[in-house]
Amino acid sequence: MNTNTQPKLADLMVRFMNRPVDAASIEAEAGALGEVEPHEVAVGFRADPRLAWTEGLSVLTALGSNETTKGLVAPSEWAAVVVRHDAAGTQPFALAGYPQRVRDLTSLLQAKDLTVLRPNGENRPATPALKTWVQKQVEQGKPLASLLAASVLRAANDLDQAETVLNQVKSSVPESLKAVCDNEEASLRWQQGKAAEAVAIWERMPESPATLFNLGMAALFLGKSAKARDLLKKAVAQISEKDGWHHLGSLYLALAEMRNG
Questions:
Q1: Whole-angstrom Cα distance, residue 181 to residue 175?
Q2: Taking the CB of the first residue and of the last residue of the chain, which one, N or C, has fewer CB atoms within 10 A?
Q3: How far apart (Å, rounded) are the C-alpha atoms in residues 167 and 76?
């Protein structure tokens, strides 16, 4: 058996999506939805809000930061943000990001041109409750809490307010969080539809599993499959197989190899 054979795309998708969802998570999601039913169904898949939050913090380690996550509590609106998320084709390895958001395998496989799946920069104002939580995080005066607040706004698609908060905190970010701040700015630019600006930021950052992943992801959806393959190979090799980001990276790698073959 050749252990170097790339797994099938469907198998890769199942690996990073197949996470347990307990009753409490399902109840939280039902409450977040209220009377609104989601129209998109991806094989009955539900993203666990708590898992999404945890995997949205793992980028700190991937960027070499030793900042503690103690005291970083998700806003009460987080479950609603996760439940209402549309499926995405692209997902940067960043704060408040999680691999399970990339759940529409059909679109990825059938897309003749992956560049059309890049974000279009749509802005949606956050709810008053989420804005209140963001304000409380900023008022703490702690750079990491403020960066997290900006990332949650980005995840909720309030890109304008996310940029405002990010600009406020950039000048006070210590050296230990500079890479995290730069990665957040690049991820925001990517979601705003400013791919070239995002790539320029990631390229000037120190090499890390997160930057390799993000540059590989960006290259894939910019139509540069050979470059994406090389970057994603390095990224996947440095991310634990227990991490959902490893499996999403492997999925992107398979897509790159399929287009480069």
A1: 10
A2: N
A3: 25
